[in-house]
Amino acid sequence: MSCGEPHEMDCSEVLDHLYEFLDREMPDDDCTKFETHFGECSPCLEKYGLEQAVKKLVKRCCGHDDVPTDLRSKVMGRIELIRAGEAVPEQDLTAGRDMPAAADEQPSPNEK
């Protein structure tokens, strides 16, 4: 995605780190660069607005559920592997739990 105009930060870089910006998990200097980019690039600003709205909706609808410590540890471990550029195992994070692996999967009749 790009508006076709040159920017200090490339649109792909902005979108690759959008969640870090949304979660304020980056230095203030980088946040300022993102804000400048959004002021210059309407496609990235639109994507930012959409992701911000989704994040608020998820927080409102699911923000009160406690995440099991082991699941949080597994997810954070995968995030660190991805950030380090290492291969991530294909096994499901919820393996061994009583829930389907994907939202579109249905439990077997024996599990109901």
UniProtKB/TrEMBL annotation:
Residue ranges of domain Putative zinc-finger in the record: 11-44
Matching InterPro entries: Anit_sigma_mycothiol_RsrA, Znf_put
Pfam families per the UniProt record, alphabetical: zf-HC2
Region (Disordered) residue spans: 87-112
Protein's name according to its UniProt entry: Mycothiol system anti-sigma-R factor
GN (gene name): rsrA
